[in-house]
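User: quick one, fold this
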Amino acid sequence: MQLEIITPESLVFQGEATAVQFPGLDGSFQVLNGHAPIISALAKGDVKVDLEKPYTEEGNAKVTVDGSNKNTIRVAINGGVVEMTNNKVIVLAE
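Assistant:
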């Protein structure tokens, strides 16, 4: 699925993911390929992204590689909104 994480300042991440875990207001939740359409508010926390290919970008301070597994990244957010439709996930983060 296509994922975009956007803040008011910039596009933080854009790429293909197999699973994305979010810090929801009532607890964390995850979406996978083919998930039903959803819109949800997000709390402060980490968006955990399982990528199709290893993360190779350098110099993006907002993206953290999860340990030695370069197929998993985390992006810290201060809240926001997520929308998934037609296998495309858009995160509007603070």
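User: anything notable?
Assistant: The chain has one domain: 2-93.
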